[in-house]
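Reminder: ligand-aware prediction takes two inputs, not one.
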Amino acid sequence: MDLKKNLQAHGISLKRSLGQNFLLNKAIPAKIIKFCSLTTADTVIEIGVGAGVLTELLAKKARKVIAYEIDKKLEPILFRLKKYDNLQLLFQDFLKANLSTLQIEGNLFFVANVPYYITSPIIEKIMFDSPTFKEALLMVQKEYAERLLAKPSTKSYGALTVSISAFSRVTKLFDVSKKNFFPIPGVDSSVIKLEPLTSPKISYEERNKFRSFVRSSFAQRRKKLKNNLKSLIPDVGKFLKEAGLSENIRAEELSPEMFIGLYHILKRW
Ligand code: SAM
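Here is what comes back for the chain with S-adenosylmethionine:
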């Protein structure tokens, strides 16, 4: 049965507030999975099952699938998934899930057509509050992918770009037109891949300190870095001099590598 008829038959209307724009074109989940190095020995966590288009393909490919969906009302359209005994379907808020208690077999992967209203909290949870993982393949809003991949001194470049690229390699895989979803959202999407760096220059334990340093640096984009860091570093002029930076520099002019260098100087300061 096609998606719209199936939803109608069960009296389900989709909720914009939960980011419920479901994939209509089945070629797209298949394409996402092709870019993922998931094998039959591995575990995959899916965030936001929806009508289960991705979930079903994952269940056919992985050893174990742990799939989160916040909306229990979708359960009647997911009965066909019951036949997969390697699938754990959890009607829970992913953001509240305790991932450290999960039994992971093989390597861990994340795959999701992300509910856009919580893209950043989801990426932060995957990156900074999850067991070690190999790859995260995520469909995000196209503009969001541009922010993750932005170059210094561009409008999209910011604290998000720096914080994520200090800990992972981000690759854009392909764009997806909004016409492939039901209901049609207001924006196009991109599928990205995040791969944690094996030896990041900031230790994992220091991730929160680094991220708050970066956030402070970008606190007011139009202000000079010196002014944004004034409350954090009393003698900020001297600090910038030691780092070999002009007093007039703005955060958006610094590359992620320069932020990492600055952070290490700040630690000795
Ligand atoms: N995977 C499906 C697809 O590609 O068609 C659905 C994707 S839809 C963009 C996002 C899904 O995430 C929705 O089914 C929504 O109910 C679910 N969702 C929203 N917030 C969530 C949360 N906090 N935890 C788990 N699932 C959530």
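Residues 159 and 214 are 6 Å apart (CA to CA). The longest strand covers residues 168-176. We will return to this case in the review session.
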